[in-house]
Amino acid sequence: MSNCYQDIHLFRFDDQTGEVYILAGEEIEIIVLSNGIWEFL
């Protein structure tokens, strides 16, 4: 994200599921699952 000059507005780690949620820029939402697979929402 920082290489694309997108501001990261929200970074959340859920310790129960091991998932990471990232909200960046105006419209970019990414979830990183506990197994390392990530996807756009």
TrEMBL record:
* Classification via Pfam families: DUF6888 (PF21828)
DUF6888 domain mapped to chain residues: 2-39
InterPro entries (UniProt xref):
DUF6888
- Protein origin, superkingdom: Bacteria
Q: What is this protein called?
A: DUF6888 domain-containing protein
User: Which taxonomic lineage is given here?
Assistant: Bacteria, Bacillati, Cyanobacteriota, Cyanophyceae, Oscillatoriophycideae
